[in-house]
Design brief:
242 residues; alpha/beta; Rossmann fold; six-stranded mixed β-sheet
């Protein structure tokens, strides 16, 4: 582990920066700059800020959807030990996504010929569970989110926005990852569905899952966060105890 990181931290972000090239304007825009953040195992960290402030960029750099320009993202992996997500190879990243790090956003990207039931079941089986157990857990999760049984064996392309979002959350949470990144997952959910998400978040917290979450609904975050960071113009301004 490099300086600044600690074995007691499951995640240590040091000097993270990311920019994007606007080719039509021949201009480079800095999304985040000099972001440092240390997360202990089992903590829930909330990140707040206006749209475009860089919140999602941080999570996408951790998940390696984006490759950062500068800085380190040290993750204390069960399989690999301390590993820098900013420079890990693709094989390692794929393995971590399957077994240790989950990501939930308000968007659902799936294979077009995969049913809702198959999506959730595949997520569980990736963790090494037998088919019977995976089927039982799939039923429990789909029932928890009250996804109509008639949709279970349908393709998500036919679902409403809210149904897709509930499915997306279900297949990420059912894996019970060590580190879960929540990128505004409740943005288009009604109040009842938000409460079902909160029930599962609290359950995962009790089981020891570490989480970083972005939510527009600050009331939703209020009794969940151990610490809250506010970001403006790509930089953290304050850190407060929730």
């Amino acid at each position: 582990m490099k300086e600044g990181g600690s074995m007691e931290n499951i995640l240590s972000i040091e000097g993270l920066a990311k920019s994007f090239k606007l080719h039509n304007l021949n201009k480079r825009i800095k999304a985040i700059n000099n972001i440092s953040l240390y997360v202990k195992e089992g903590e829930f960290i909330g990140i707040t800020g206006k749209s475009g402030s860089g919140k999602s960029t941080i999570l996408k750099c951790i998940y390696r959807t984006y490759l950062s320009d500068e800085g380190d993202i040290w993750y204390n992996s069960t399989k690999f030990g301390p590993i820098n997500l900013a420079s890990a190879n693709e094989r390692e990243i794929v393995d971590l996504r399957k077994h240790e790090i989950g990501y939930v956003s308000q968007f659902l990207n799936v294979m077009p010929r995969t049913t809702a039931r198959e999506l959730v079941k595949q997520s569980i089986m990736e963790m090494g569970y037998q088919e019977y157990t995976a089927e039982m857990e799939t039923v429990k999760m789909l029932e928890h989110f009250e996804l109509d049984r008639e949709l279970w064996d349908s393709y998500p392309a036919t679902f409403s926005g809210g149904e897709k979002l509930r499915l997306n959350i279900a297949r990420a949470m059912v894996k019970r990852p060590r580190l879960l990144l929540l990128d505004e997952p409740t943005a288009s959910l009604d109040g009842a569905s938000k409460q079902k998400v909160k029930v599962l978040i609290k359950q995962l917290m009790e089981e020891g899952t570490t989480m970083l979450g972005i939510f527009h609904d600050l009331e939703f975050m209020k009794d969940l966060c151990d610490r809250e960071y506010n970001i403006q113009a790509g930089k953290f301004l304050i850190s407060t105890k929730s």
